[in-house]
User: What shape does this take?
Amino acid sequence: MSKKICIVYGETKSINAEIIFKSISKLNKSLKKKIFIIGNFKIIKKQLKDLNYRLNLNKIDDLSEFSKKIDILNIKDSRKKNYILQCIDIAHNLAIKKSINGFINCPVDKKIFRGKFNGMTEYISKKNNTKKNEIMMIYNPSLSVVPLTTHIKLNKVTSYISLKKIIMKITNLNIYFKNLFKFKPKIAVLGLNPHNSEYNKNSEEVKYIIPAIKKLKKMNVNVEGPFSADSFFQKNNLKKYDVVVGMYHDQVLTPFKTIFDYDAINITLGLKYIRVSPDHGIGANIIGKKIANSQSMFKAINFLNKAKYK
Assistant: This one.
Protein backbone atom coordinates (compact mmCIF):
# COMPACT_ATOMS: atom_id res chain seq x y z
CA MET A 1 0.00 0.00 0.00
CA SER A 2 1.34 3.45 -0.92
CA LYS A 3 1.98 6.01 1.80
CA LYS A 4 -0.67 8.11 3.49
CA ILE A 5 -1.65 11.50 2.07
CA CYS A 6 -0.96 14.27 4.56
CA ILE A 7 -2.97 17.50 4.58
CA VAL A 8 -1.95 20.34 6.89
CA TYR A 9 -5.17 22.12 7.84
CA GLY A 10 -3.63 25.58 7.71
CA GLU A 11 -5.46 28.78 8.60
CA THR A 12 -8.44 28.15 10.88
CA LYS A 13 -10.30 31.33 9.86
CA SER A 14 -10.60 30.27 6.24
CA ILE A 15 -12.44 28.20 3.64
CA ASN A 16 -10.17 25.24 4.40
CA ALA A 17 -12.87 23.10 6.06
CA GLU A 18 -15.06 23.60 3.01
CA ILE A 19 -12.47 22.78 0.35
CA ILE A 20 -11.23 19.75 2.28
CA PHE A 21 -14.75 18.36 2.68
CA LYS A 22 -15.73 18.97 -0.94
CA SER A 23 -12.49 17.40 -2.20
CA ILE A 24 -12.64 14.32 0.03
CA SER A 25 -16.30 13.80 -0.91
CA LYS A 26 -15.26 13.37 -4.55
CA LEU A 27 -12.53 10.80 -3.85
CA ASN A 28 -12.95 7.07 -4.29
CA LYS A 29 -13.06 4.90 -1.14
CA SER A 30 -9.48 3.64 -1.37
CA LEU A 31 -8.11 7.16 -1.70
CA LYS A 32 -10.25 8.48 1.16
CA LYS A 33 -8.69 5.89 3.48
CA LYS A 34 -5.23 7.29 2.76
CA ILE A 35 -6.05 10.82 3.94
CA PHE A 36 -4.96 12.20 7.29
CA ILE A 37 -5.06 15.80 8.45
CA ILE A 38 -2.72 17.62 10.81
CA GLY A 39 -4.59 20.16 12.91
CA ASN A 40 -6.77 20.73 15.94
CA PHE A 41 -9.48 18.05 16.11
CA LYS A 42 -12.05 20.21 17.92
CA ILE A 43 -11.72 23.11 15.48
CA ILE A 44 -11.97 20.90 12.41
CA LYS A 45 -14.97 19.00 13.79
CA LYS A 46 -16.76 22.21 14.79
CA GLN A 47 -16.16 23.97 11.48
CA LEU A 48 -17.47 21.00 9.53
CA LYS A 49 -20.52 20.87 11.80
CA ASP A 50 -21.14 24.61 11.34
CA LEU A 51 -21.14 24.03 7.58
CA ASN A 52 -23.48 21.05 8.03
CA TYR A 53 -20.86 18.77 6.50
CA ARG A 54 -20.36 15.23 7.76
CA LEU A 55 -17.05 13.41 7.67
CA ASN A 56 -16.26 10.28 9.65
CA LEU A 57 -13.39 11.72 11.71
CA ASN A 58 -11.02 9.95 14.07
CA LYS A 59 -8.68 11.75 16.49
CA ILE A 60 -5.20 10.27 16.74
CA ASP A 61 -2.08 11.30 18.64
CA ASP A 62 0.36 9.11 16.76
CA LEU A 63 0.70 7.73 13.23
CA SER A 64 0.49 4.19 14.58
CA GLU A 65 -3.18 4.82 15.34
CA PHE A 66 -4.37 5.11 11.73
CA SER A 67 -7.93 3.92 11.12
CA LYS A 68 -10.23 3.52 8.14
CA LYS A 69 -11.79 6.91 8.93
CA ILE A 70 -10.45 10.39 8.17
CA ASP A 71 -7.73 10.60 10.80
CA ILE A 72 -6.88 13.91 12.46
CA LEU A 73 -3.40 14.04 13.96
CA ASN A 74 -4.46 16.26 16.83
CA ILE A 75 -2.41 19.37 17.63
CA LYS A 76 -3.88 20.45 20.94
CA ASP A 77 -3.22 24.15 21.53
CA SER A 78 -4.54 26.09 18.55
CA ARG A 79 -4.27 29.39 20.45
CA LYS A 80 -0.50 29.58 20.17
CA LYS A 81 0.82 32.10 17.66
CA ASN A 82 2.96 29.46 16.02
CA TYR A 83 0.19 26.82 15.93
CA ILE A 84 0.04 26.65 12.11
CA LEU A 85 3.81 26.55 11.74
CA GLN A 86 3.89 23.82 14.39
CA CYS A 87 1.59 21.78 12.13
CA ILE A 88 3.79 22.49 9.12
CA ASP A 89 6.91 21.48 11.06
CA ILE A 90 5.34 18.14 12.00
CA ALA A 91 4.52 17.44 8.34
CA HIS A 92 8.04 18.49 7.34
CA ASN A 93 9.60 16.13 9.87
CA LEU A 94 7.40 13.24 8.73
CA ALA A 95 8.43 13.88 5.13
CA ILE A 96 12.12 14.11 6.02
CA LYS A 97 11.83 10.75 7.80
CA LYS A 98 10.12 9.30 4.68
CA SER A 99 7.00 8.45 6.68
CA ILE A 100 5.12 10.34 3.96
CA ASN A 101 6.12 11.30 0.42
CA GLY A 102 5.30 14.94 1.10
CA PHE A 103 2.29 16.99 2.10
CA ILE A 104 -0.40 19.43 1.07
CA ASN A 105 -0.69 22.60 3.06
CA CYS A 106 -4.00 24.42 2.96
CA PRO A 107 -3.96 28.22 2.56
CA VAL A 108 -2.55 30.35 5.36
CA ASP A 109 -2.60 34.02 6.30
CA LYS A 110 0.93 35.34 5.72
CA LYS A 111 0.71 37.25 9.01
CA ILE A 112 1.86 34.06 10.74
CA PHE A 113 5.38 34.70 9.46
CA ARG A 114 5.53 38.09 11.22
CA GLY A 115 7.82 39.56 8.57
CA LYS A 116 10.46 36.83 8.88
CA PHE A 117 9.41 35.09 5.66
CA ASN A 118 7.60 36.33 2.56
CA GLY A 119 5.40 33.25 2.34
CA MET A 120 5.09 29.49 2.82
CA THR A 121 7.42 28.76 -0.11
CA GLU A 122 10.23 30.63 1.61
CA TYR A 123 9.49 29.14 5.05
CA ILE A 124 9.52 25.54 3.85
CA SER A 125 12.53 26.14 1.64
CA LYS A 126 14.46 27.45 4.66
CA LYS A 127 13.61 24.31 6.60
CA ASN A 128 14.87 22.24 3.66
CA ASN A 129 18.10 24.27 3.53
CA THR A 130 17.69 24.86 -0.21
CA LYS A 131 20.00 27.90 -0.06
CA LYS A 132 17.40 29.86 -2.07
CA ASN A 133 17.51 27.33 -4.93
CA GLU A 134 13.82 26.49 -4.48
CA ILE A 135 11.35 27.04 -7.30
CA MET A 136 7.73 28.10 -6.95
CA MET A 137 5.87 26.55 -9.85
CA ILE A 138 2.16 26.97 -10.54
CA TYR A 139 1.28 23.81 -12.39
CA ASN A 140 -1.31 22.70 -14.89
CA PRO A 141 -0.60 19.62 -17.06
CA SER A 142 -0.73 21.74 -20.22
CA LEU A 143 1.38 24.67 -18.96
CA SER A 144 3.20 25.83 -15.82
CA VAL A 145 4.67 29.16 -14.77
CA VAL A 146 7.65 30.03 -12.59
CA PRO A 147 8.49 33.53 -11.31
CA LEU A 148 12.20 34.28 -10.97
CA THR A 149 11.35 36.31 -7.88
CA THR A 150 8.54 35.20 -5.59
CA HIS A 151 6.85 37.31 -2.90
CA ILE A 152 8.89 40.50 -3.05
CA LYS A 153 7.94 44.11 -3.73
CA LEU A 154 8.13 45.34 -7.31
CA ASN A 155 10.71 47.99 -6.47
CA LYS A 156 13.12 45.22 -5.43
CA VAL A 157 12.73 43.01 -8.51
CA THR A 158 15.44 44.64 -10.63
CA SER A 159 18.01 44.36 -7.84
CA TYR A 160 17.42 40.60 -7.75
CA ILE A 161 17.87 39.98 -11.48
CA SER A 162 21.35 38.88 -12.48
CA LEU A 163 22.99 36.55 -14.98
CA LYS A 164 23.91 34.11 -12.21
CA LYS A 165 20.43 33.98 -10.67
CA ILE A 166 18.65 33.46 -13.98
CA ILE A 167 21.00 30.62 -14.94
CA MET A 168 20.70 29.03 -11.49
CA LYS A 169 16.90 29.24 -11.41
CA ILE A 170 16.36 27.78 -14.89
CA THR A 171 19.05 25.12 -14.48
CA ASN A 172 17.37 23.92 -11.30
CA LEU A 173 13.94 24.10 -12.93
CA ASN A 174 15.19 21.90 -15.76
CA ILE A 175 16.58 19.32 -13.31
CA TYR A 176 13.69 19.22 -10.82
CA PHE A 177 10.97 19.27 -13.48
CA LYS A 178 12.53 16.30 -15.27
CA ASN A 179 12.95 14.50 -11.95
CA LEU A 180 9.26 14.88 -11.09
CA PHE A 181 7.60 14.58 -14.50
CA LYS A 182 10.11 12.30 -16.27
CA PHE A 183 10.65 14.49 -19.32
CA LYS A 184 12.75 17.51 -20.19
CA PRO A 185 10.67 20.72 -20.29
CA LYS A 186 10.60 23.24 -23.08
CA ILE A 187 11.02 26.59 -21.34
CA ALA A 188 10.03 30.09 -22.47
CA VAL A 189 11.59 33.10 -20.74
CA LEU A 190 9.92 36.50 -20.57
CA GLY A 191 11.69 39.84 -20.56
CA LEU A 192 11.28 42.27 -17.69
CA ASN A 193 10.43 45.54 -19.42
CA PRO A 194 7.60 46.52 -21.79
CA HIS A 195 8.53 45.33 -25.31
CA ASN A 196 11.81 44.06 -23.86
CA SER A 197 12.88 47.72 -23.58
CA GLU A 198 13.44 47.62 -27.35
CA TYR A 199 16.70 45.84 -26.49
CA ASN A 200 18.31 48.99 -25.13
CA LYS A 201 21.93 48.25 -24.26
CA ASN A 202 21.35 49.21 -20.61
CA SER A 203 18.23 47.05 -20.23
CA GLU A 204 18.01 43.93 -18.08
CA GLU A 205 17.17 42.00 -21.24
CA VAL A 206 20.50 42.86 -22.89
CA LYS A 207 22.66 42.79 -19.76
CA TYR A 208 21.32 39.66 -18.09
CA ILE A 209 18.43 37.79 -19.68
CA ILE A 210 19.77 37.28 -23.23
CA PRO A 211 23.27 36.25 -22.06
CA ALA A 212 21.68 33.82 -19.58
CA ILE A 213 19.57 32.21 -22.30
CA LYS A 214 22.63 31.83 -24.55
CA LYS A 215 24.56 30.21 -21.72
CA LEU A 216 21.67 27.88 -20.86
CA LYS A 217 21.39 26.74 -24.48
CA LYS A 218 25.05 25.80 -24.41
CA MET A 219 24.27 23.77 -21.30
CA ASN A 220 21.69 21.83 -23.35
CA VAL A 221 18.68 23.39 -21.63
CA ASN A 222 15.67 23.62 -23.96
CA VAL A 223 15.01 27.35 -23.51
CA GLU A 224 13.89 30.24 -25.73
CA GLY A 225 13.34 33.98 -25.30
CA PRO A 226 13.17 36.60 -24.08
CA PHE A 227 9.58 37.12 -25.15
CA SER A 228 7.64 40.31 -24.59
CA ALA A 229 5.27 39.59 -21.69
CA ASP A 230 2.34 41.64 -23.06
CA SER A 231 1.82 39.39 -26.07
CA PHE A 232 3.22 36.04 -25.00
CA PHE A 233 0.16 34.45 -23.41
CA GLN A 234 -1.63 33.71 -26.67
CA LYS A 235 -2.95 30.28 -27.60
CA ASN A 236 -0.39 29.58 -30.32
CA ASN A 237 2.51 30.37 -27.99
CA LEU A 238 1.16 28.36 -25.07
CA LYS A 239 1.02 25.17 -27.13
CA LYS A 240 4.78 25.31 -27.74
CA TYR A 241 6.07 25.31 -24.16
CA ASP A 242 5.82 23.39 -20.90
CA VAL A 243 6.96 26.16 -18.56
CA VAL A 244 7.04 29.95 -18.76
CA VAL A 245 9.60 31.74 -16.58
CA GLY A 246 8.81 35.35 -15.74
CA MET A 247 10.84 37.93 -13.87
CA TYR A 248 8.33 38.58 -11.10
CA HIS A 249 5.26 37.08 -9.41
CA ASP A 250 2.30 38.81 -11.09
CA GLN A 251 3.93 38.87 -14.53
CA VAL A 252 3.19 35.16 -14.92
CA LEU A 253 0.60 34.36 -12.24
CA THR A 254 -1.96 36.93 -13.40
CA PRO A 255 -2.30 35.63 -16.99
CA PHE A 256 -1.95 32.03 -15.83
CA LYS A 257 -4.82 32.29 -13.34
CA THR A 258 -6.93 34.10 -15.91
CA ILE A 259 -6.47 31.18 -18.29
CA PHE A 260 -6.72 28.24 -15.88
CA ASP A 261 -8.78 29.64 -13.01
CA TYR A 262 -8.70 27.00 -10.22
CA ASP A 263 -7.41 24.20 -12.46
CA ALA A 264 -3.88 24.44 -11.05
CA ILE A 265 -1.77 23.73 -7.99
CA ASN A 266 1.29 25.29 -6.37
CA ILE A 267 4.36 23.01 -6.28
CA THR A 268 7.63 23.85 -4.56
CA LEU A 269 10.45 22.25 -6.55
CA GLY A 270 13.88 21.68 -5.06
CA LEU A 271 12.81 20.27 -1.69
CA LYS A 272 13.67 16.87 -0.23
CA TYR A 273 10.05 15.84 -0.67
CA ILE A 274 6.91 16.86 -2.57
CA ARG A 275 5.07 19.90 -1.24
CA VAL A 276 1.93 21.16 -2.92
CA SER A 277 -0.88 23.53 -2.03
CA PRO A 278 -4.09 24.85 -3.56
CA ASP A 279 -3.42 27.79 -5.83
CA HIS A 280 -5.49 30.35 -3.89
CA GLY A 281 -5.74 32.10 -0.55
CA ILE A 282 -7.79 31.69 2.62
CA GLY A 283 -11.01 33.14 1.09
CA ALA A 284 -11.76 35.34 4.10
CA ASN A 285 -14.67 37.06 2.30
CA ILE A 286 -16.56 33.82 1.62
CA ILE A 287 -16.05 31.85 4.85
CA GLY A 288 -19.20 29.90 5.72
CA LYS A 289 -20.99 30.69 2.45
CA LYS A 290 -20.36 27.23 0.96
CA ILE A 291 -19.42 28.70 -2.43
CA ALA A 292 -15.66 28.01 -2.33
CA ASN A 293 -14.19 26.28 -5.38
CA SER A 294 -12.42 23.08 -4.28
CA GLN A 295 -10.97 22.14 -7.69
CA SER A 296 -7.40 23.13 -6.82
CA MET A 297 -7.49 21.20 -3.54
CA PHE A 298 -8.90 18.14 -5.29
CA LYS A 299 -6.12 18.38 -7.89
CA ALA A 300 -3.50 18.69 -5.14
CA ILE A 301 -4.68 15.49 -3.43
CA ASN A 302 -4.63 13.49 -6.64
CA PHE A 303 -1.25 14.91 -7.63
CA LEU A 304 0.40 14.03 -4.32
CA ASN A 305 -1.09 10.54 -4.46
CA LYS A 306 0.60 9.83 -7.79
CA ALA A 307 3.75 11.96 -7.75
CA LYS A 308 7.15 10.56 -6.82
CA TYR A 309 10.67 11.95 -6.68
CA LYS A 310 13.49 9.70 -7.78
